[in-house]
Amino acid sequence: MPELPEVETVRAGLEPLVSGTSIDAVTIYRASCVRHHGGGAGEFGLAVADAGIGEVVRRGKYLWFLLEEGHESPVNALSAHLGMSGQFRSFEGSPPAPHAHCRARFALTTPQGPLTLDFLDQRTFGYLRVESLVPTADGAPGGHGSEVPAVPRSVAHIARDALDPAVDQAGAVTAMRKGTRPIKTVLLDQTVVSGIGNIYADEALWLARIHPLRRASSLTSSEATRVLDSVRGVMGRALAQGGTSFDALYVNVNGESGYFSRDLAAYGRAGEPCVRCGDLLTRDRVAGRSTHWCPRCQTGPKPGTDRD
DNA sequence: AGTAGCACCTGATTGC
DNA sequence: TGCAATCAGGTGCTAC
To answer: Is A201 exposed, middle or buried (0-12, 13-18, 19+ CB in 10 A)?
Structure first.
């Protein structure tokens, strides 16, 4: 379940490998991996063929490769979403037979020779597509890893992520406190603040001592700020670990392996003692997602009342 | 407009 | 032992 830190680790590893290369061809092993690309697998192949790869960019969990096609500035991107289980793996020289979960294989040309880039995705929620770029509303770079003030069309509605230096902090706090939804649901909404998935949402709320069922509109500005700071804290620490535990060849390892080895304070610990107060952590479903929290030190809606 | 809920999909785990 | 039901989860879409 790659969230922002995992996707950033993938981006940072891909960038030096593929930037400056060009795409010779792509083989699609499962057509559904390009289901969001208009025109299907055949058209997708035509759209990437002979394109040069520029910067590798990320906003939240969305990743894209800027395509250089002889224009002054890029007009298209090859965008990728890892879904729940997407991975990229690369091979220099002659590649092995594609893995059973390989959905697409790109043949690249580099100054050092041929390079193969595989897109693997066991649960098939991930996807690839080629689409046009649209300018960012604020004129700032579209995402991490790029100076280009544009994003793929399908990313335009996604908010800047929690670690984006161009994020509008006051605007994010305001957006968080709108509406009637629980704070857990709001954190998972990528149009409010992006990059947060189910695991880091629980971790951030535990750190901020806010109950996941608290109505987001009931948070004070300072509480909402504390939640955002906690999101940055847990993601920043995870990113630091991901960045040190993987080297440049990380794309050859299982992208999930580093994820679950991290020490989590809340997620997956139902029935275990809270490391802060000792009470047993509890679990329930919120917005259809498994949600973990400490009933003692995460203040929230009181049972039997509507005060939240 | 804002929100809720489901479809999508595979493999691991649990229950009978 | 074998098979079926359940669970996991991010996004995109539809319906209210």
So the answer is: buried
What is the C-alpha to C-alpha distance for residues A106 and A52, in angstroms, rounded to an integer?
12
Collapsing DSSP states into helix, strand and coil, what is residue A230? Answer: helix
Give pLDDT tens digits for A113-131. 999 999 999 999 999 999 9
The CA–C1' separation of A222 and B10, in angstroms, is 42
List, for residues A217-263, the tens digit of each pLDDT value: 999 999 999 999 999 999 999 888 875 554 433 444 444 444 445 67
Determine whether the distance from the CB of A124 to the nearest atom of strand B is below 7 Å. Answer: yes
Looking at the predicted structure, is the pLDDT value of residue A98 above 70? yes
Q: How far is the CA of A290 from the C1' of C6 (A)?
A: 14
Catalytic residue among A58, A59, A61, A214: A61
**CA-to-C1' distance for A60 and B9, Å?**
23
Q: For residue range A182-217, list pLDDT tens digits in order.
A: 999 999 999 999 999 999 999 999 999 999 999 999
Which string of DSSP letters, residue by residue, matches A140-186? S-SSBT---SEEEGGGTTSPPBTT-TT--HHHHHHHHTSSS-BHHHH
Question: Cβ of residue A181 near strand B, that is under 7 Å?
Answer: yes
* Catalytic residue from among A289, A295, A296, A301: A289
Q: CA A289, CA A188: separation in Å to the nearest integer?
A: 10
Question: Which of A221, A222, A226, A234 minimizes the C-alpha distance to A195?
Answer: A234
Radius of gyration, CA atoms only, chain A: 20
